[in-house]
Amino acid sequence: MQLPYELLIGLRYTRPSRGAGQRNRFISFISALSVAGIALGVAALIVVLSVMNGFQKEVRDRMLSVLSHIEVFAGRAPLTDWRTLVVEARKNPRVLAGAPYVAGQAMLTRDETVRGVIVRGIDPAVEPTVADFAAHFVAGSAAALVPGEYGVAIGIEMANQLLIGMGDRITLIVPQGSTTPAGLVPRLRQLQVVGIFQAGHYEYDSSMVLMDIEDAARLFRVEGVTGVRLRTSDMLAAPAIARELARTLPGDLMIRDWSQENRNWFAAVQIEKRMMFIILTLIVAVAAFNLVSMLVMTVTDKRSDIAILRTLGASPASVMKVFVVQGASVGLLGTFAGVALGVVLALNVGPVMAAIETTFGFQVLPKGIYFINHLPSDLHLDDVTLIGVTACVLAFAATLYPSWRASRVRPAEALRYE
């Protein structure tokens, strides 16, 4: 099967001919720069978005070691029969388990330091079914939260900032006070630290206090539980599962998934990803529009060839196709090279960064400053596809004006001085 002559001529123009002059070699040099620029821009865009996806996944996984996929609660009123609620929720095949909790806010005092904390009462026997908390204890364990003993587990950041160690006693001030002849007096409770955990998320490591659910219920005077935490088979499907539960669960209940509880953080990450995509796409656009200068020079150099094609019967549209093929092939070559380079780098960010740190003797993410001391990467096929398509569209758009100029060349004027 014969290929269209426009395709054959356009592809031939992408490589220098034998005995090419200095001008032709310069055009080939600009073409090579265009390919390299597009490839580097595409690769940078893939690597940056993959690293941002990796950071988002890392933080999300660390959040979900403390948070549940879905929470069900009744607003200000406590739940008195949480087991029935879990049975109803598990009728949804994508809900795997449920565990009760009691939550409240309090003030924690240590010597002369006072800070606000979030108190969460958990059932150590049931909690592992909805959150992998046991793996994050750096001292003690969740099993030490025995009802009636008022033991607590605190985050490692809180322990470091307040100089609290295992076995130390702290004071918790609960806002639900007691009425006395002197007025409303807040209730104080002495607690003993029986565990220290490191969830890997600063907000929880610095402000969360865990205790047994029965002790928390007595402390906050809750008859029942605050709500139920649910684990699903797919955390990414938790928003859709929450909407299904809202239609099927009886009673006037409030349901929220993990993305709603941290909506501001995830919204900020999405905005950063969009802005980074736009900024790095401009780099690809600059490289793509180098094709304009390359094609303009090619059209000027090939005026006589264009005139001969026209005299042999080629239409203006055919001439335009020749230079569109030339520019688009350069753009496609740069895009494919950039995608290949970007995918390889995104899949090997860790070893590449380790090699760079070893070579230059510095650490990109020092362990003493950041919770994550490595660059995580999470390559998404849809990101790679979007980047590749965007680069191809920009490269194709860059060929239109020079190709149109080539189609406007008049044979008589081009051959007048030949």
Number of helices: 15
Query: H/E order of the elements?
Result: HHEHEEEEHEEHEHEHEHHHHHHHH
Largest sheet: 6 strands, mixed, barrel
- The proportion of residues in beta strands is 15-25%
What structural class is derived from the secondary structure elements? alpha+beta
Shape: elongated
Quick synopsis:
The protein is of the alpha+beta class and about 425 residues long. It contains 15 helices and ten strands.
What is the topological layout?
Blueprint: H1 5-13, H2 22-63, E1 70-73, H3 82-89, E2 95-110, E3 113-122, E4 137-140, E5 151-155, H4 156-162, E6 169-180, E7 183-197, H5 202-207, E8 208-212, H6 213-220, E9 227-232, H7 238-248, E10 254-257, H8 258-261, H9 263-288, H10 290-301, H11 303-311, H12 316-347, H13 349-360, H14 381-407, H15 411-414
Parallel strand pairs: 3-8, 5-7
Antiparallel strand pairs: 1-9, 1-10, 2-3, 2-6, 2-9, 4-7, 5-8, 6-7
Helix pairs in contact: 1-12, 2-9, 2-10, 2-12, 2-14, 9-14, 10-12, 10-14, 12-14
Description:
It is a single chain. This protein has 15 helices and ten strands. With 418 residues, the protein is of the alpha+beta class. It starts with a helix and ends with a helix. The model has no long low-confidence stretch (mean pLDDT 79). It is elongated, with a radius of gyration of 32 Å. α1 crosses α12, α2 (22-63) packs antiparallel against α9 (263-288) and α2 crosses α12. Strands 2-3-8-5-7-6 form a six-stranded mixed barrel. It has helices at residues 5-13, 22-63, 82-89, 156-162, 202-207, 213-220, 238-248, 258-261, 263-288, 290-301, 303-311, 316-347, 349-360, 381-407, 411-414; strands spanning 70-73, 95-110, 113-122, 137-140, 151-155, 169-180, 183-197, 208-212, 227-232, 254-257. A hairpin with a 2-residue loop joins β6 (169-180) and β7 (183-197).
